[in-house]
């Protein structure tokens, strides 16, 4: 693989990671909004803070490597970010409605957060 192709792949991976972190942040915001106060909510709030920090660190690293300055890379990253946020926002109403009880909703939300984090 050429060095140019490798750098293009890295830029794509960083843009994808950034978009994924931003989408997870939106999902966590929605889950926090429906979670009663207490220790679990504090854990979610800490996770949201860490997720936002990850997004900023990925973006900062991409800039250090010189990515994010070219229009194609910016366009791809923005498109992925927008797609991820639309997906998270469209999922939020389903998160609110699903399940029979508040506890069931929280468990399902936690499962989704774990799956997103694993991505």
How do the helices and strands line up, and which of them pair or pack?
Layout: H1 3-33, H2 39-64, H3 71-97, H4 102-118
List keywords for this structure.
single chain; 119 residues; mainly alpha; 85% helix; 0% strand
Spell the H/E element sequence: HHHH
Provide the structure class: mainly alpha
Main beta-sheet annotation: none
Shape label: elongated
Radius of gyration: 16 Å
The chain-level mean pLDDT equals 79
- End-to-end Cα distance, whole Å, is 25 Å
Regions with little confidence, pLDDT below 50 for 5+ residues: none
Question: Would you count the extended β strands for me?
Answer: 0
Helix content: over 70%
Give the number of helices: 4
Beta-strand portion reads under 5%
Describe this structure as you would to a colleague.
- Helix content is 85%, strand content 0%.
- α1 (3-33) packs antiparallel against α2, α1 packs parallel to α3 and α1 runs antiparallel to α4.
- It is mainly alpha-helical and 119 residues long.
- The mean pLDDT is 79.
- The chain has helices at 3-33, 39-64, 71-97, 102-118.
- It is built from four helices and no strands.
- The radius of gyration is 16 Å and the shape is elongated.
């Amino acid at each position: 693989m050429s060095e140019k192709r490798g750098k293009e792949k890295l830029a794509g991976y960083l843009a994808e990671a950034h978009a994924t972190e931003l989408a997870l942040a939106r999902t966590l915001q929605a889950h926090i909004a429906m979670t009663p106060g207490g220790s679990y909510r504090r854990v979610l709030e800490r996770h949201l803070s860490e997720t936002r920090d990850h997004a900023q660190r990925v973006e900062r690293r991409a800039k250090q490597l010189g990515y994010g300055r070219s229009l194609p890379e910016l366009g791809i990253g923005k498109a992925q970010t927008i797609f991820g946020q639309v997906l998270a926002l469209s999922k939020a109403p389903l998160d609110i409605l699903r399940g029979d009880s508040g506890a069931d909703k929280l468990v399902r939300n936690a499962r989704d957060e774990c799956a997103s984090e694993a991505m």
